[in-house]
Design brief:
Helix content is about 30%, strand content about 20%. The protein is of the alpha/beta class. It has a single domain, classed as 3 Solenoid (UDP N-Acetylglucosamine Acyltransferase, domain 1), CATH 2.160.10.10. Helix 2 packs antiparallel against helix 3.
Length: about 130
């Protein structure tokens, strides 16, 4: 199973059986996300380096208007979609197995937990943001 096949299956409510092919891909993606977020969270990075690390984590080009104050945590990373002019404050945790879509102009407050779509030009905060 490819990463793309796995991600197309990962919708809210989808059940992954332990030891299945999906479970192995999920574990591989989680380990990859841990490696990248450890790099992101454990030393100083310029804005450009943060954008590069988030691009690597998500598998998508993150716009230069993106901003973030680490630390940042996620369980997958490849199912996060970030628009333009997005800012993520410190301590956020994204549960993105089912997909997270952050539209343009969104500010995400500190320590927020996300597992849903955040509409354009909105503020998301608190724990969790469903």
């Amino acid at each position: 199973m490819t990463c793309e096949e796995y991600l197309s299956n990962m919708k809210p409510g989808y059940i992954v059986d332990g030891g299945s092919e999906e479970h192995l891909v999920m574990h591989e993606l989680s380990q990859r996300a841990l490696k990248i977020t450890m790099e992101l969270n454990n030393k100083y990075h310029t804005k450009e380096e943060i954008i590069q690390l988030m691009s690597e984590l998500t598998g998508q080009k993150i716009d230069e208007s993106f901003g973030m104050f680490p630390p940042f945590y996620t369980d997958c990373g490849r199912n996060i979609h970030i628009g333009k002019n997005v800012f993520i404050n410190a301590g956020c945790k994204f549960q993105d197995q089912g997909g997270i879509y952050i539209e343009d102009g969104v500010l995400i407050g500190h320590n927020a937990g996300l597992c849903a779509q955040i509409k354009a030009s909105s503020l998301a905060g608190g724990m969790p943001v469903w």
